[in-house]
Amino acid sequence: MKNVLATTLLCLLQLCSFLGSAEDLKLTNGEWPPFTSEKYFEHGFISHVVKEAYKLEGIDVRYTFLPWKRALQEARDGDVWTGSVAWSKADGRTDNFIFTDPIIELSDVFFHRKDLAFDWSTFEDLKDYRIGATIGYSYGKAFSEAEQNGLITVERISTDESNFKKLAQGRINLFPCVLEVGYEILANNLPPGVAKRITNHPRPLRRVGYHVILSKKNPRSEYYAEAFNKGLQKLKDSGAYERFLSGIVDGIYRQE
User: Fold this and answer.
1) Checking phi first, is residue 229 left (phi over 0); if not, alpha (psi -120 to 50) or beta?
2) How far apart are the first and last CA of the chain?
3) N vs C: which end of the chain shows fewer Cβ within 10 Å?
4) Is-same-fold flag (22-105+209-254; 107-207)?
């Protein structure tokens, strides 16, 4: 009888431990400071928000940092990694992924050298400029159509960092990039005297939301999307989201 009671008690303890333990969610990630970075505090603002939102719903997030193209492919396969952060709703992505509510909305702007007298309001105004772009990155439907129609001249290379170096050297005239990301790259990759010679035009190229994306091949992706949306709203209601956001300006996320 004692053995039966002991066995029953052990099973109950194991069950309670299982029920009380957090579930793991594996997401791919990449380098896009100050929003995502393997080297930054809490892996950057976006990574921090995603982790804490899921934590409020009893889910622990595990990240792996990969080149962006591979990060998307691994997430699409849905075998080891269920999804990825953070992506916009570019052409074709909604065919393979479930999108959460936006983590944040950001603006792409044109960066240029201060010695270039630059202004624009339509893509027609850009026809005489050499525009840099990064392979694999979407700059929105209007930009893509202008490029495909030959209205603008676009030179694509592998990284944002390389594009800013080309811009500083005068090898391109314009480079579109998320405002905060652009200045983070300038601060981290160019000498201060060179970085100070680059500025941005105030007109946004576009404003777009960035999301957690979850593979449609994973049967639990709908659940994970709903869980994130609930956790994100809790973060906003508590004021934690705004505190995390202020950390970008304060430079908190640069601290490893």
Assistant:
1) alpha
2) 56
3) N
4) yes
Query: In the predicted model, what is the mean pLDDT of the chain?
Result: 91
Q: Give the domain ranges of the chain.
A: 22-105+209-254, 107-207
In angstroms, rounded to a whole number, what is the distance separating the alpha carbons of residues 15 and 10?
Answer: 9
Quote the DSSP letter at residue 32. Answer: B
pLDDT the model gives residue 19: 45
Q: Name the CATH code of domain 107-207 (choices 3.40.50.720, 3.30.110.40, 3.40.190.10, 3.20.20.10).
A: 3.40.190.10
What count of Cα atoms within 13 Å lies in the side-chain half-sphere of residue 202? 0
What counts of helices (H) and strands (E) characterise the chain? Answer: 10, 9
CATH architecture observed for domain 22-105+209-254: 3-Layer(aba) Sandwich (3.40)
What does each C-alpha distance from 201 to 108, 112, 159 come to in angstroms? 10, 8, 21
In this structure, what DSSP letter does residue 101 have? S
Residue type, 111: F
Which pLDDT belongs to residue 167? Answer: 98
Sign of torsion, CA 44 50 53 56? negative
Phi, psi of 59 (to 5 degrees): -125, 130
Instruction: Give the whole-angstrom CA distance, residue 200 versus residue 27.
Output: 33
Q: What is the pTM of this model?
A: 0.83
The phi and psi torsions of 202 (rounded to 5 degrees) equal -70, -20
Are the C-beta atoms of residues 87 and 72 closer than 8 Å to each other?
yes
DSSP strand pairing (23-29 vs 83-87): parallel
